[in-house]
Amino acid sequence: MRKPINLNTAILLCLASISFVCSGQSAVFNSSDESGKVSQNSTTLSIGSHLELFVDDYLIDHLKGNAELRLHNPEPREIAITLDAPWEGSGSGYLSVFFDGSRYRMYYKAAQYTVTPGKMKTDDHPYFCCYAESFDGINWYKPILGLYEYNGSKANNIVFISGMMGGVNADGAHPAVFRDENPNAPADAQYKAILRANKPHGLFAFKSRDGIHWTPMSQKPIITDGAFDSQNLAFWDNELGEYRAYWRYFDSGTKENPYQGIRGIRTAKSKDFINWYDQVDLTYVDSPPEHLYTNQVKPYYRAPHILIGFPTRYIDRGWSESMRALPELKNREMRSSASPRYGTAITEVLMMASRDGVSFKRWNEAFIRPGIERNGTWAYGNQYVGWHLVETKSELGGDAPDELSFYSLEDFWTGTSCALRRYTLRIDGFVSVYAPMSSGELITKPFTFYGNKLFLNFSSSAAGGIQVEIQDATGKIVPGFSLEECPPIFGDSIERVVSWENETDLSSLEGKSIRLRFVLKDADLYSLHFK
Amino acid sequence: MKNRLKLLTIVSSIAFFQTCIVLAVQQPAKDNTSSDTSLHVSPEAIINIGSRRELFVDDFLIAKRKELELLLHLPTQKEIVMVFDKPWEGSGSDFEVVFRDGDLFRFYYTAAQLTNTEGTKIGGHPNYACYAESKDGINWNKPDLGLFEFDGSKQNNIILSIPNFDNFTPFKDPNPNCKPGERYKAVGSGIGGLFAFKSADGIHWSYLSDKPIITKGKFDTQNNAFWDPIRKHYWCYIRDFHDSNGNTTNDTKTGIRDIRVSTSIDFLNWTDPQFIKFSDSPDVALYTNQVVPYYRAPHLFLGFPTQYVDRKFTQAAMQALPDPEHRQKRMKFSPRYGTVITNGLFMSSYDGFNFHRWDEVFLPIGPQRSDNWVYGDGYQSLGLLETPAEDITAPNELSFFAGEGHWKDSPKLRRYTIRIDGFVSLHARQKPGEFVTKALIFSGNALTINFATSAAGSIIVEFQDENGKPIPGFTLSDCDELFGDTLERIVTWNDKSDVSSLIGKRVRIHMVLREADLYSLKFQE
After folding, report:
1. For residues A467 and B345, what is the distance between their CA atoms, to the nearest angstrom?
2. What residues make up the domain containing B436?
3. Residue B182 and residue B54 share a domain
4. pTM value?
5. B124 and B39, same structural domain?
6. Which residues of B touch A366 (CB under 8 A)?
7. How do residues B388-430 score in pLDDT, each as one tens digit?
8. What ipTM describes this predicted complex?
9. Kindly report the CA angle at B138 between B137 and B139, in degrees rounded to 5?
């Protein structure tokens, strides 16, 4: 029997047999311009002494030779914590993770989803928001908080319930919790949380002095226009000097039925966390329409002028030979009997970055794929990464530089628990400018900086390396800073100073409009930083 | 397109080519006037892949590819599995050899002393061949063998102690004609050349011959021999030097470290060793070679050589690398002890003589720490072990090992893992990419692939006739798209996997990939 071709196959076949429509980032970035001419109409950027990443084309004028931008995928590590308490379970997730100076804190939805023929049972116990903490981000424990009763006892780690809390009826199962970086945040509101609510429909704001004890900030929802049926979040944006919120919005949603169309993300700003304005849907530089489940946007802590998001890509692939070959078919079939997409949708993590909070460069390839097929992967609900990344010690030990840790969900739908697997990535290591041994170049747009030294986060092979040249805005070499005067930089360092004939002092160029030219050989450049 | 397979005059390799190349045919000019812009290929030799596994480590099987890159995958760093902290070991311990022997994993290495942690002295005890074993390839123990005395005691894991001897490199010999007392063989360098050893149990060793078996070469790093079950002869890869013109040189100061290869039917008489050739790689110094027939596709040799680079860097560069003080101290013994840096490379060959080598690093040194970015980093152990993944529902992985902390007391050995067949993939980003193979003949009833996609990615597969025309029933639009991440998935067209109607016919395989990696394919009997 001929099966209907699903949309993805149809698009693929179409692309394959006619011509390849260029929709990837390569068209935007991968100029193989052999003339080496730089654009003459670029306005001079001011990067100050910001750390700059290559997660978008902000700083890039063009790439030459065999240079390309490479998205790097975090490496799977151990299961960091299992959400297996009787009040947690297989429907858990939506985690918030941050380091607040003293400890790593984690908040997450706790729910049990029991798959039965024709029905998804979600009421084995009420939905909660639970809490775990850690002193290293690697070893986690669940403290006994004594706040809410479950099954006759307060010996648990529940921080929010679903129901009345401080006069507000909110849903503890869609939480987003953060440490408020606003320097003017009052002592009793150092931690804030966003919870969704059904009646009335909207998002409620909560505050806390210690991250454990919470009270509502308002008796009315702070945001009401949205679907909210995912993790909705907000944070202080220090560059903007205001709060930003990001929440679930369907592109064809109406007030009567907000759940129609493609799952997307809407944002707004606020000065006081209560009143929100400039509500707008996110736009993307060069990405196709795709369902985005969570958004996981936050300022990158080392470059807070850049917002980085790790949205979940949601795709319903329907039934096929491949779908049947994926792990845990019986459970997949059974949950499909409750709702087809419960079995046939698959989720994974993308990466996106923005300078203005609205227009995002979204990388079109997965940041964290479901990975090698094993139990607890390749299902709707798995490979949702927590909000947001944290810095942790390297497993290499000794004096190895710290890494970034992410926590990603596994084992959704099955058994009575979910697992959070830790993933690690090099610091600033989202995207690199990479060139093979055959060499490639990056030429930046003209910019001004503050500082007197240039530092690179880079890695090379033993035989590879990077050389840097400083040019004026028109592309002319600044005397003393030519490529020939820059001995190849090789090694693997988060912070290596660049020198020209042993000279590292750039104070003579401070405030002037310059371009940087990088020549790379089997090397990755992750970030640059004038200090 | 240049055919990588070159008919060689080596008698012993003819048998292989008989199985491989059926015949080279001149094909009629193909009609390409249609609007189909799919990949257009030229005629070339027909490859008979039978039901053997083919890896996409290079373009061996590929006639044309578009928007697909060959992507080299780097191994994952795992735990430290061993510390060389015994008094008979030392800061130059290296040349690890691993292989599976029934339920046992065997591990051999050379214990040697370079500088000490203080950088005040070099050398010490002679080199010893040492031994460790494991039940899982991950947890190792060094047995007390009681064979050789060190410092008045035989309580150690020394397996061989011979004056002026280095780089003991054993293997288990699967040659059906192998004598029982020679089931384990080894090579190692001594005065006058490369010597052969035998053992009945892998523990007790004696000379196979009192004369060196190969004398042309320098042998001053790990040399490596093994039995080739397909070509029915032994291979030996050895260290030598060539000058800047590619000629043999005895000058180890100006010469470039290189690899020669020799073959033998009886392990005693060897052909004149030839430098191995590289298709399109620059002339760089190579240290160890670590060539092995890949156990899942033994017609394919994989090599894991060490690249040796003398960076002759400035003071500023030295200060930027780890522990410049120790680097300077050991440079007093020889400048290159400080200025040389090494890391691991990857190469592959279908004939044992001509290699495709990646110019980019395969085993990088990694983040700078106090004891790395030195001469000695990234030496990959000889041999790949299949070991269980941490998640019991995940497939096995390949493990191998590399040392760290050379030049200082108690260097460590770290385990690395990589996906099975996962050295190189044909990689497509979101924009679809595609390839067409050379014309080939296969046997088997179903096609399986080792592949990975993202949740949104896919692979679709088509069979074409040798002229590039899609075969009805096996076209792209008939194919059930594949997504997932598995070592073995059967390809189906309209729910059916049976390809037996195409057995023995000249076909091309056409695949379209999106957000996907293809590692290998195999026809199942």
Report:
1. 23
2. 11-73+424-524
3. no
4. 0.92
5. no
6. 454-457, 515
7. 999 999 999 999 999 999 999 999 999 999 999 999 999 999 9
8. 0.91
9. 105
